[in-house]
Design a protein that fits this description.
The complex is a heterotetramer, with 2 copies of chain A and 2 copies of chain B.
Chain A (H helix, E strand, L loop, with lengths): L1 E5 L5 H7 L9 E8 L7 E8 L3 H16 L2 E9 L1 E3 L4 E9 L2 H18 L2 E7 L3 E3 L4 H6 L4
Helix pairs in contact in A: 2-3
Chain B lengths: L1 E4 L1 H7 L3 E3 L7 H11 L1 H6 L7 E4 L2 E3 L10 E5 L6
Parallel strand pairs in B: 1-5
Antiparallel strand pairs in B: 1-2, 3-4, 3-5
The chains are: A alpha+beta, B alpha+beta.
Chain lengths: 146, 81, 146, 81
């Protein structure tokens, strides 16, 4: 398991290639990359705040739960904080498993839990205003799938 | 006890963290104490359904006891991912 | 949409980074990479045969169906044929969308359909024998999910 | 009509493709004609539940008519991905 919480940019392709090199019986690798969207066409930047200490613990708890539920050869989680430009990668999850279904389900599960259970908060900064992104009921509801 | 605020809770209260001397038994009691202090606290805690709390970096709830807890954090629902 | 059917090796990380560069409103990128597994510990190579002409058409039909079902900014499919070594990437699917759910579902859908509807056949070559991989009933059943 | 074989069908019949002159009306009729030819064809087509057919590069079924079809391909269920 690799968990990194960082303000630095990361290269999703390079991370995907590094991930799961020689780590056992892998037939399937699924990755998810979240990217800063400019939904209104006026975003100057996205600011991400987090809770140092709790963030790492919460992510490890979520990854451990995924490893209990599915037979995973490896898991990668990278999540950035600080100011992020439009189009920049926010975070990345990758899962490696012998079988495709486990890799897909675990990546989907990790995303649902990281969204609502890892202590990150997004703020959208435009020329006009700074607005905290509100959590959606749908995000909380998504956890009931698992 | 170290009390930490994140996101708009931090902005409303105006500080990221503070040391609070309290005999509050539960999180709810602590919130009541803080609200009684000043309008900015009263505003930040006016709707606890919009808030989450972590005790020593574990998500918890407002009825949880504070005995032995060293760090309490208040924040809005998380928006990671 | 990019569809490539090739015998050459590909670099999944480089492909992921090239994919979906500046192609509209993207918040989520999901990738799947299939890797040659040595399940019995004696695999010399995996041989993949395909039906040139039909392969490209079948993949395009599957991608078009995915684009009808989900709002996708872009789709990438790479599938190799010929001899492949243990640990080599066999194929890759990537989907880019504004929203996470569409990117995940479309990638999962594409994999299910590529597995049973694109004309590829896998043969496992060991020191002892050459064996065509049998299709699983579960693969055909998986199509009923959609 | 061009008839193409893939995977173990190709191996059993021993050739990747051939030109077949036929008046077969459906795929089933064509299979019956081929099976009557030689033991290797008879063996390859003995269990059609283990076979798939494509007409002009589109998946089809064994009852489909061959009128106008230029390319028929026989192969086992696909194992891509």
């Amino acid at each position: 398991m690799t968990v990194r919480v960082q303000s630095d940019h990361f290269d999703a392709g390079a991370e995907l290639n590094c991930f799961a090199q020689g780590c056992g019986d892998i037939g399937a690798v699924v990755s998810f990359t979240g990217v800063v969207r400019d939904t209104q066409g006026n975003l100057r930047e996205m600011l991400i705040e987090h809770y140092p200490g709790m963030t790492e613990k919460a992510i490890k708890t979520i990854v451990d739960e995924a490893k209990k539920r599915w037979d995973l050869a490896d898991v990668l989680v990278i999540h950035r904080y600080g100011p992020l430009a439009v189009g920049a990668p926010i975070m990345m999850v990758a899962t490696a498993a012998a079988h495709r279904a486990a890799a897909f389900a675990a990546a989907d599960f990790l995303m649902d839990y990281l969204k609502s259970r890892a202590p990150f908060w997004k703020k959208e900064v435009t020329e006009q205003a700074e607005t905290w992104v509100a959590a959606k009921d749908a995000d909380e509801d998504a956890l009931k799938r698992w | 006890m170290n009390v930490i605020y994140f996101a708009w809770v931090r902005e409303r209260i105006g500080i990221p963290q503070e040391t609070v001397e309290t005999d509050a038994v539960t999180v709810k009691d602590l919130i009541a104490e803080l609200r009684a202090r000043e309008a900015r606290y009263d505003a930040a805690f006016s709707d606890t359904t919009a808030l989450r709390v972590a005790l020593d970096q574990e998500l918890s709830d407002f009825d949880a006891p504070l005995a032995g807890v060293r760090e309490v954090a208040f924040f809005p629902p998380m928006t990671g991912g």
